[in-house]
Design brief:
The structure is a homotetramer. Chain A has 20 helices and 15 strands. Chain A is of the alpha/beta class.
């Protein structure tokens, strides 16, 4: 998918266990791909990057675009190697893919020198691994005794909650997760690619009371997401709660925070087994947890009401909360939502609720601006039948925006929406807070760009939006354009003085 | 255990899941430990090395013994890091141990700068992980569906065999392995630390027919050992056999050779589950495999007879096969046997059969000469009640022999036996073969050293042996000395013109 | 200069010994800068990149945008380190700059963790190096005996030639180089940033007879450029010639090819000293070399005539040789010419001759497409009084083109010219040759983009050119727009079936 | 020299510019050599280590003794690479040697895979660099203007001093240094391999007043030694003095401390040029500095008197100062003195004064215990006509002592002296100071070993010494034994409660 792309390569897979792959040239081709690899590394995406290299016979001689790619990639991949012989190409590709699936998935890198790529060898001498025979299943149950232990813990619990993280999607565990929360009657929060596991409106779907729940729960089950900065390194969980962690990766379990119980394996298989183990009992405790759920539902309602004024704001310049709300209203059951940016996009996390699992994509723990166009490209390529809507900050769009042209060329129409505040606003807030108004704007203001013209130049559809009540109609027209085969850009001018709450608290650094 | 040791650090653990730990000073203290770390890396031993470092405040300034230890250790550890804050010491120790147990175990490294080590902090600010709460169980079952698949394969099999590798010991899976081979009536071969899982004489214990079995079997189950050079990278297994691989490490399964089925998890738990799954059936096929076992037993007998002449040889200089045979005869149920060397020790692999699991230690896939004294030290420290016999080549002994003094000082008596051919003979053979007799001896001959005097100098017991019929009496006297609390060295002069068969075939390079 | 830039950071310095500097955020901010660092590494540009990093107190905990930057940068920098204490910031900046100037210049990298950046310390405790006191002069003469040796060699030589490479500019050695070739009457070829050392028309300026000269010369002096792929690794020099290499970097001298004499030091100081040493003699041999120069001048003339037809071609689509010729005619004494691209730009190397040293910039040995906009930005920033003309391939422009907006915002107008063949044509040629016409176009064709509209969208000037005779008028209008303060883009549609000769010979891989 | 050696490899060269070389096997052969490489890295010794490696065709497959050697060596070498083609072996050896001599010398590493080593190629295709044609001279003068500047500074100076460091020997600059101090009448201190540049008793030889001189001088010239921990990072020099630094390495000049002037190049060539530049003047100021020298000479005398009591001590156990004094008295003009150890050897730095340059060797900035036997071996091999005396701490000797056997085998007799306090005493002092008497002895006491018997066992000469007045006679007998061809070990039992002053101040950590 990355042919002639200016973006960083991006894995996007339709099926669990199917990794992405990109091939790039040596030197700048490979270094331009590093951000994509690093993003996959932090986001736990299985992905093989194959890079070119000068001829092995010219090793260390200064060949064209020669760089020590493998040395650079090793720190951010699960495996990085040079293929030293033509006979080994297929074998080492299998090796690289295998390593992608060890524990939490991630990227691998192979460099194939020019002479290794060009040589011809006897096929009989080469190892050609057969599909399905070069690696084991990833669907591990972990330690069966721990399944029983967790069932015991949950059955006795009165105020449990569960956080469904990215690996719920990685493992295609949505059904298992839904069965788990429904059977055991446990309130569920979602983050990362786990969003959409339960649809908005589902009685076990919670999203505005997470902090309260983590503070009051007696049992907290963390599924498939690490105690990293997004979780305050685990510090925000009640210290008296029984904390259980379920993860694909052994290295993640117990990291940064003590746990009462950890289980390593496929999170879907584990949730299913726990559900089964609890269901077999005379009473799984579902009923006694109803009061706890009602308590949280009341909190959810109160939280939603607080935001309503901003969601419906008619102020000008347009309040970015209004855009967030409009987008959520606009989503269909089948829209894949992609957020790419800082503050304007972060605000949508309070409003946008994908209707299905696998229909939310964001910059992830690396905070990689510029993921939008390549994510949109990949999503549309894998799911041509779906609508893909990508909401960009203006700073983010211009990082990889030229691949809008690639979308035109490869017939991959998507609906781009830009929340344009002519600034890198998340940085701007912190900078003002730290260094004062005088130095606060240095290096974070951007020009006022009518991005709709960019789309038009490339044969797409474009529109500028200045009025709150024009948001919806413009989105509708963009949708029609996309349906007709044209990618579209709706450039919405928003208020640069409205910030996301996390930005104002600088939560991400605590 | 490594205080004032001249040896490389060595993990030796009495219980599965308990890693070794060594603390060394910065600079040469750490670099002298690298071979030990590398050995643990290839041998899959869980082991934390903690090294000193110059003050963080003097970073890159040229402090005493400053070296970039972490950069050097990263390629041969599962985790290597600097501890940057005193508050993080306990946390990062837990992190390093956790990483040791991810997949196949291995070493980790932490470097603690001088000022970080010396500073005092508020304990409340430091994270102090609780034992048992910083990591998950390692006793994974893998994918339960594959347990059923393997049971199906085995029940139908007529000519199966199993290779029990090092991880059978790592996982303390000896009971499970014995039950597996007995219940299903499968001939078992053992290698690495898997030796001794079945005692010599057991009806399912095989060791001279492995090549035949791998060629004729319909199902081959490889347990806990990779397809590395010791297995000819998997090339020596029948291409028509159903090959099953069970391993702690996802990255090992399917590597270098296609497999029919791979299962990743605790090898003991998996073998037990497969036994259970097969036993539940009306017929597990045990009886129909009897002819196959008889066929192999006949081969074993023939193989043993071939070697008998050398085992009983009375030639002078002493034939190293005679020494190997004498040592095997001399072992008790409770002797931990350690081999440290090249050819003279390799020869013992044809004769020495430990009576219990965990009673065989060797240089492993790194081929690390000099492991003997530190292994003996560690084995005796952990098992003071057992006899530890270490058989050295003379080249190997002199690499780390000074720690014989450490054994005296820490009261860790063991029985050292040297097969002394005054050469690095394994290298010598290959060199002669490759470069001719003239250059064949360059750089591989050693002096004629009466090592018994070394033992005596340090307060141990020593003896020189020149006659075949003096081997046993000398060993007996050594045993008595050890019982009295003195380490002993029996220096046996052997024929430098007898080589191990693998050496003559250069199998290790194919 | 890189604030809010989407480009890779780019050093551009007005004075020798003054390095560039860029500051970027952690994670993707740093990884997006890697291509720029790698380019500086291969191009020998002194340059300090400072990257952010998560708090040291959160080391290895998964903080926002945490990546092992230093590990990734080490392979492509002269120095890369974390600053571990606030007291050390100034000191380590001085250390990083010092390392930039060790031998051939290059990039350094420092990462400053968030808490190190934010802490306040007693200034007295911090080391604050004084300007000029933290490093030595770079103006080394090398071994004085070798200066004499080279003077001897040259005075005796009858058919010498000299290649003036990039370091002639790095060392600001243009005057010394001119004096050298004029005093000793030696024909000079130039490459890289050495172009322009002698102006076109100068009697010692040669550029179409290099291969002939390297084949026939008795003495070849290579100044400040390595025997890398651009020099056929030194293989294309006559094997009977006396080859002399002068370079800033010890590691470059004698690399890939034997030399008769090597001198390491400041190339200007060395050329001056050699001129002086030769001048002091009764006869420096200048006159006897006149026949050799005439021989080469005849070759130059013949070479120029061969190209004339293409330079004046009126064919449609426009022949890229015509564009190259028009650009050269259009250059003023004060135009800094930048080439950014593959084939269309490579073709200009046959036509464009900068009038002054330091007025030619190209992608360098890393072959980094996309250097154009950031190079133009930097050149205009440092030399606001000069005209900056950048000629892009269309593939190259779209890699970093969004920074055209940065040029508008920071008032850095330049004249951009695009040679648009809607393809990555250099790759395309090789691909067709290797894999046939069917697969030859896969992944290297681009859309037909009217780039003039991009300029207009951002407030710049734009124009499309389809006719050969419209090139000059369009360039003139672009020049006027730039003078009025607007950056401009002239999008010239060129014939995709004309290739550079090196592309057709695949010289870069030999 | 390292064939069948148990020591770490050690460079020892008779001629400047001639590097050492060692060849070791893969895996533990290479990792056991790492301490030697690291020592050469910190000690600025040019040295190529060539390691084996598994076949390139088995890359990443787990071949025998396969380790990522290059990755491990890169952080501690100037250059580390795999040779990927047989045709490149000679070329890459030349590349590795060239890199050894870039700036301050240091080690390089090449790994040659088994199949690359064994393949046969057409010699015409291989690049075989000619001796003397693959690299430039290292005898750089630096910036000639700075030579004049330094001459000006010195001529005006009234209270100058110079420190002659290791590079005075590296550059074989002893004559130039002597001429410099004598012509300009400057007091000289020496450290590292610079010791012996001036013989004891020379009017410009100073060694007990360095701290005073650094405090009172108006000009301090540091020659060929970095501002590392041994120099208190430059903090101990008067802040009002003009500080000049002369060094082979650009990266060292101005590091850790501001300088008034820095010159990079061959220190001998530079000192000679400065002497010439100063001598040409009517008055080089030599006379006016006489008072300053007298002031220092008085200090030297007082310093010597303070130590006399300990030097002549008759106490029992023997005072290690007495041993130090006896050794100094015992040295001939032609004795190469090697110190290997902690405290007992550090004490000799106060007494032992080599009579010639190049006749002092010590563990260097890495503080590498165990250098003694390999240094002695190398020194004797290169200078068979000289006496080699190595003084060991007992802890140090036992690290590499087995190579005493190698000395016997290769006929390299040397006189070993052990200052035996049965402890790692330097560590012991700090440990007692920091953790109290109870924990002060943990892990640093050694057994009481009669090392003379070790020598005897291996065919050498040995003697135990308990009485102060027996030191000299025993040394004499050892000398005779060595003359007869036997290596000797004189084991002197010394008082474990006498420490070096630096140890008591913990100077090395400040």
């Amino acid at each position: 998918m990355c042919a002639t792309s200016r973006s960083r390569p991006t894995p996007r897979t339709a099926t669990p266990g199917k990794p992405g792959c990109a091939v790039v040239t040596a030197g700048p081709g490979t270094t331009d791909a590093i951000t994509g690899v690093a993003n996959a590394f932090r986001a736990e995406s299985p992905f093989l990057l194959i890079g070119g290299q000068g001829a092995l016979s010219q090793h260390k001689m200064g060949s064209l675009q020669d760089l020590p790619h493998v040395d650079m990639m090793q720190p951010i991949t699960k495996f990085a190697a040079t293929v030293p012989h033509t006979e080994r190409i297929a074998d080492m590709v299998s090796m690289a893919f295998r390593e992608c699936f060890n524990g939490a998935p991630g990227p691998s890198f192979l460099e194939i020198p020019r002479d290794v790529l060009d040589a011809q060898v006897d096929l009989k001498k080469a190892r050609i691994p057969a599909a399905g025979q070069y690696r084991a299943s990833t669907r591990s149950l972990g330690d069966p005794d721990d399944i029983q232990r967790l069932a015991d813990i949950l059955v006795k619990s009165e105020r449990p909650c569960v956080l469904l993280g990215t690996q719920v999607w990685t493992c295609r565990a949505s059904d298992a997760a839904r069965e788990f929360v429904r059977t055991l009657n446990i309130p569920a929060y979602m983050n990362g690619a786990g969003r959409g596991t339960l649809p908005p409106g589902d009685p076990h779907h919670f999203n505005r009371t997470r902090r309260y729940a983590f503070d009051k729960a007696d049992v907290i089950v963390i599924v498939g997401t690490p105690f990293d900065f997004r979780m305050g390194y685990g510090k925000r969980l009640s210290s008296s709660a029984t904390v259980v962690q379920i993860d694909l990766d052994y290295r993640t379990v117990g990291k940064n925070r003590d746990i009462s119980l950890g289980i390593v394996g496929d999170v879907g298989r584990i949730l299913k087994a726990v559900t089964d183990a609890a269901t077999g009992r005379t009473d799984n405790g579902a009923k006694k947890r109803e009061a706890w759920l009602e308590e949280l539902r009341a909190g959810e309602k109160a939280g939603g009401e607080k935001l309503a004024a901003m969601f419906h704001s008619n102020s000008k310049p347009i309040n970015p909360y209004r855009v967030a709300w409009e987008i959520n209203e606009f989503l269909t059951e089948d829209t894949i939502y992609i957020g790419d940016g800082g503050d304007v996009v972060t605000i949508t996390a309070q409003a946008v609720q994908p209707r299905q699992p696998g229909h939310w994509m964001d910059p992830g723990p690396l905070g990689t601006l510029g993921v939008g166009v390549p994510f949109a490209m990949a999503a549309k390529y894998v799911h041509p039948e779906k609508e893909v809507l990508c909401y960009f900050g203006d700073g983010a769009f211009s990082l990889t925006g030229w691949d809008f042209e690639t979308c035109v060329r490869f017939n991959l129409p998507f609906l781009g929406v830009i929340g344009n505040n002519s600034a890198m606003n998340q940085i701007r807030y912190g900078q003002i807070a730290k260094y004062g108004a005088n130095r606060g704007d240095v290096g974070n203001k951007l020009g006022d760009v009518p991005y709709s013209k960019f789309a038009e130049m490339l044969g797409g559809y474009g529109e500028e939006v200045y009025e709150p009540d024009q948001i919806r109609p413009a989105l509708e027209r963009g949708r029609e354009a996309v349906k007709s085969g044209k990618p579209a850009l709706i450039n919405i001018w928003v208020d640069p003085n409205v910030y996301a709450p996390g930005t104002m608290n600088q939560t991400m650094y605590k």
